Amino acid sequence: MKKLNKLTSTILLVLVLLVVSSCSKSEKKKIVDSSKIQVSGTMDAELTAPPFVPSPVGDRPAKKLIVNLEILEQEGTMTDGVKYMYWTFGGSVPGSFIRTRVGDEVEFTLSNHPDNKLPHNIDLHAVTGPGGGATSSFVAPGHEKTFSFKTLNPGLFVYHCATAPVGMHIANGMYGLILVEPEGGLSKVDKEYYIMQGDFYTKGENGEPGLQQFDMQKAVDEDADYVVFNGSVGALTGDNAITANVGETVRLYIGNGGPNLTSSFHVIGEIFDRVHIEGGSSINTNVQTTSIPSGGAAIVEFKVEVPGTFILVDHAIFRAFNKGALGMLKVKGEEDKQLYSGVKQEGIYNPEGGTIQTMPNGADKKEVNPNKSLAQKIESGSQIYTKTCFACHQANGEGIANAFPPLANSDYLNADVKRAIGIVLHGKTGEITVNGAKYNSVMTKQTLTDDEVADVLTYVYNSWGNNKTEVTPMMVTEVKNSH
Amino acid sequence: MNTIFRLIFGMLLFFTIHVNCQSKMVLIKGGTYIPLYGRDSLTVTIGDFQMDVYPVTNEEYLQFVKKYPKWRKSNVKSLFADANYLRGWKSDTILGDNQLLKAPITNISWFAANDYCECQGKRLPTIDEWEYVAMANEDIPDARILKNYNDFILAWYEKPKTFNNEIGSTFKNYWGVYDLHGLVWEWTSDFNSVLISGESRKDVDTDSNLFCGSAALGATDLMNYAAFMRYAIRGSSKAKYTMKNLGFRCVKDL
Hints:
- The structure holds two protein chains of two kinds.
- Chain A is α/β, with parallel strands linked by helices.
- Helix content of chain A is 23%, strand content 31%.
- Chain A has three domains: 42-181, Immunoglobulin-like, CATH 2.60.40.420; 191-332, Immunoglobulin-like (Sandwich); 374-482, Cytochrome Bc1 Complex, Chain D, domain 2 (Orthogonal Bundle), CATH 1.10.760.
- Chain A has eleven helices and 23 strands.
- In chain B, helix 5 (147-157) runs parallel beside helix 8 (221-235).
- Chain B has a single domain (25-253), classed as paralog of FGE (formylglycine-generating enzyme) (Alpha-Beta Complex).
- In chain B, the strands form three sheets. In chain B, strands 1-4-7 form a three-stranded antiparallel sheet, with no helix packed on it. In chain B, strands 2-3 form a two-stranded antiparallel ribbon.
């Protein structure tokens, strides 16, 4: 019994020792990992402009990696008709994507184009060292500086210019991403893209044409005129949309250059299967919207199961629809009705239930005076018009351009009284041409009695230069029955 | 008739410039002011001096290298000018096709600019002198707190290729000096006396003068930003550097 006890304690001791030693072993390994990794060989880094990324590191060993980045101050297009003087790393906003692996020794040369006006530098968040490289890379126009660093921590990192005034350099587009892959690389996916959000501050309001200057006061007030992906409105929409095929896994490297605004990054109609939170090693799954601080990044991954256009937005949603933070992912392939049906059925929604087709009137059927004079009809019609038609067709029948057609002097109205009665009775959908202008809206069917329809139309026909047709309840009933 | 008159007038003008080889200077009345950035003491006192009305032109510099062969492109010591010295010139004594005679000379080193001024019996302005004259707009000697003054400077930073504009194409300031803003950067004698490490955020932390000084002046952010960039370009330079957007002018003591 004693012997057994002894045996147990020995086993326990061994176990404890094992655990302890394995613990210290793994810790030790971590330390060795980053700074002690030996490099073998030299290679030139592949640099890409957004939305593309260089090929993955795969299982290549750590190397001496040569990176040459050129700073260009150049005019570009913010949106149709609006130009902006961008300051760029490599000629694009965001700047060129740099892809490395842990343990690489990066020899970084920053060149400042001779035509540039200002000195610049680079602060890479992937660098462990004072200023993230900024101190060593401060470079005058027409010159270049070289410094080197070893990538110690894996993750997705922002780089940016840090020359005074720092905010202005960043606001003009001087930011980008550098990826440090872990040993063996990130898992294999089908498609990878590079997207970076930024806020811009222009002298003119959003959309004001011409070459727009940077507005320092608005930047200080954080009152952005444009919030965009990849440097301009439309950089990721239409023909510039990123693409994938059904069944593929997509990985997005998302950064936020700022200078001011935090992004609530969201893809409409997708759920991120995996998110490397803040670009680091911690992974969250099944995420709808991920927060990306300015000067931060995230890696999001998701499988696209159904075809269609998926909209990328900053879900601070006015930025998306009013300031430009909107991109598109177009997915091609077979539909899967079980996952997403599309429109199955279209119908009219009535809160009271499908059988009731008219608005409840409340009152009993009104008394109808069959012998009203024209003046009486017009007076009654005027009241009905104010209650029923006024909101869209406006006080004097002028309508609203591009939305609601005019009733005043209306060729469409005067051409066919039966058609007009029919529209009031049944509503109207689809394109029509009134006085030479096209309208394509919806008019709902009106819940009016035949008498009321007659009165309101008589009022309209006898106002605003129309042809003075007098509409009788008989005519309304006739149209109703003919339908 | 009119044409002939203009022709005569033009020729007269041409001769005046050529006869008076020494470029035009104006008197700058000294005074005390608070520089924006990077000095130990808050106020700086400037004595009276004369300053060139315009930056030195391609034409003037061409005459200079003809007279002093050691500053020709092929002769210059690499210690005194980097490889971009007079870049764009066709040869030692011929300007490039796109370079205007009346455009400011650029791509010259501090050594070259310094020697040029000395050869004219002049010198380069100090940072304080340059900044003192440059804080004037058309009407007043210190316009730094005016929004449109700062806007003009900031806007120039975003205008490409102004180095090939002719001298006198910007505004004439209170002192009668042209082109301090809007054409090219300009060398100063002590350009590297303000230590900007390149890590500008660090500089901001340690240099409390900037904030004390500007607070005392009631300066706006905008005002600092415009000046920051001049200090940044100076901080990024070395005496042998040459840049496409960097020229110079001279001053003279009374």
